[in-house]
């Protein structure tokens, strides 16, 4: 016991508050490190992230940055480890799928239809968005992104909001459709699967968080087609969100590991190039806060991350984090 206490305090920078927060973090997120050396390593990373949060939030309080940070379930990861967790490389997937011929159409800019858009939209308020899910350690963000857009279309077509099965997409919309299960996928490929095979509800095909064999025994909800939003055009994306419903989007999520609240912008360091896209999300609306326009985005990292599982991303800011680089929606 003496040796353990000596280790923590010999460094001279560890406080009882740090230790308390570390214990609370491990308890909350089920972290159990059976090897002392690994616990020490993770605690060191955790402390580094605490310092990062404190430094960033001091700037937030001064109005120097537009968003705040907090301890999230990723707080014991280095930045490189978090990027590895994101896993999905949309640029590589697009290249791998370049020879596939799927029937989709492109929504391009029409200035006449764009000028009359509402100043704010939130599909939550219209009852078209299900609760926030948690993808766990599976790289299934693409499936949850697609499912969110499909759920809204199911509501508009059948009059009921149902949780649809992300697990079915992980298991069944497989390599045949250009996806890799928990190793990543494309929302367009998911839409193509649902067009052909349909999709069951979460209750019928519950989420496991692993890639498994396909257990689809019946067809579910089908769509007629899907639409790709014009590349990097935020005005066309806004039109789709306002007039159609929630839109599936890819983004560079490399810098939102510890996001708490506020409006993320390009100052975080994110990129808008297609090769930098590494996470699938769902844009459910847009609005303005303190004179700054933002996208309202639903994530799939549980309600403990961000603002109850959501985040705001600056809108009309040169395509922040690539939110309008690869976006699409289904048509029921």
UniProtKB/TrEMBL annotation:
<feature type="signal peptide">
    <location>
        <begin position="1"/>
        <end position="15"/>
    </location>
</feature>
<dbReference type="InterPro" id="IPR038765">
    <property type="entry name" value="Papain-like_cys_pep_sf"/>
</dbReference>
<keyword id="KW-0645">Protease</keyword>
<keyword id="KW-0865">Zymogen</keyword>
<dbReference type="InterPro" id="IPR039417">
    <property type="entry name" value="Peptidase_C1A_papain-like"/>
</dbReference>
<dbReference type="InterPro" id="IPR000169">
    <property type="entry name" value="Pept_cys_AS"/>
</dbReference>
<dbReference type="InterPro" id="IPR013128">
    <property type="entry name" value="Peptidase_C1A"/>
</dbReference>
<protein>
    <recommendedName>
        <fullName>Cathepsin L</fullName>
    </recommendedName>
</protein>
<feature type="domain" description="Peptidase C1A papain C-terminal">
    <location>
        <begin position="117"/>
        <end position="331"/>
    </location>
</feature>
<keyword id="KW-0788">Thiol protease</keyword>
<keyword id="KW-0732">Signal</keyword>
<keyword id="KW-0378">Hydrolase</keyword>
<dbReference type="InterPro" id="IPR000668">
    <property type="entry name" value="Peptidase_C1A_C"/>
</dbReference>
<comment type="similarity">
    <text>Belongs to the peptidase C1 family.</text>
</comment>
<keyword id="KW-1015">Disulfide bond</keyword>
<dbReference type="InterPro" id="IPR013201">
    <property type="entry name" value="Prot_inhib_I29"/>
</dbReference>
<dbReference type="Pfam" id="PF08246">
    <property type="entry name" value="Inhibitor_I29"/>
</dbReference>
<dbReference type="GO" id="GO:0008234">
    <property type="term" value="F:cysteine-type peptidase activity"/>
</dbReference>
<dbReference type="InterPro" id="IPR025661">
    <property type="entry name" value="Pept_asp_AS"/>
</dbReference>
<dbReference type="Pfam" id="PF00112">
    <property type="entry name" value="Peptidase_C1"/>
</dbReference>
<dbReference type="GO" id="GO:0006508">
    <property type="term" value="P:proteolysis"/>
</dbReference>
<dbReference type="InterPro" id="IPR025660">
    <property type="entry name" value="Pept_his_AS"/>
</dbReference>
<feature type="domain" description="Cathepsin propeptide inhibitor">
    <location>
        <begin position="22"/>
        <end position="82"/>
    </location>
</feature>
């Amino acid at each position: 016991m003496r040796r353990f206490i000596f280790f923590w305090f010999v460094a001279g920078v560890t406080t009882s508050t740090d230790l308390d927060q570390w214990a609370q973090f491990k308890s909350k997120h089920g972290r159990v490190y059976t090897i002392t050396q690994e616990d020490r390593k993770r605690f060191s990373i955790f402390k580094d992230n605490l310092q990062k949060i404190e430094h960033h939030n001091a700037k937030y309080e001064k109005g120097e940055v537009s968003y705040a940070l907090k301890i999230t379930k990723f707080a014991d990861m280095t930045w490189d480890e978090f990027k590895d967790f994101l896993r999905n490389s949309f640029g590589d997937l697009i290249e791998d799928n370049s020879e596939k011929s799927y029937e989709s159409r492109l929504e391009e800019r029409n200035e006449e239809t764009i000028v009359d858009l509402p100043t704010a939209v939130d599909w939550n308020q219209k009852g078209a968005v299900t609760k926030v899910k948690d993808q766990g350690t599976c790289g299934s963000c693409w499936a949850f992104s697609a499912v969110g857009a499909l759920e809204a279309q199911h509501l508009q077509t059948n009059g009921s909001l149902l949780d649809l099965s992300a697990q079915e997409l992980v298991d069944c919309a497989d390599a045949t459709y250009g996806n890799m299960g928990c190793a990543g996928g494309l929302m367009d490929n998911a839409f193509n699967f649902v067009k052909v095979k349909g999709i069951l509800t979460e209750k019928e095909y519950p989420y496991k968080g692993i890639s498994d064999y396909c257990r689809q025994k019946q067809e579910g909800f089908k769509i007629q087609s899907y639409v790709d939003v014009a590349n990097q055009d935020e005005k066309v994306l806004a039109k789709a969100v306002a007039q159609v419903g929630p839109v599936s989007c890819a983004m560079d999520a490399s810098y939102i590991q510890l996001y708490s609240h506020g409006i993320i912008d390009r100052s975080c360091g994110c990129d808008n190039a297609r090769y930098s896209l590494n996470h699938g999300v769902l844009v459910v609306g847009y609005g303005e806060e303190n004179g700054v326009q933002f996208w309202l985005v639903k994530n799939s990292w549980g309600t403990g991350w961000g603002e109850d599982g959501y985040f705001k991303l600056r809108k009309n800011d040169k395509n922040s984090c690539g939110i309008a680089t690869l976006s699409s929606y289904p048509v029921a």
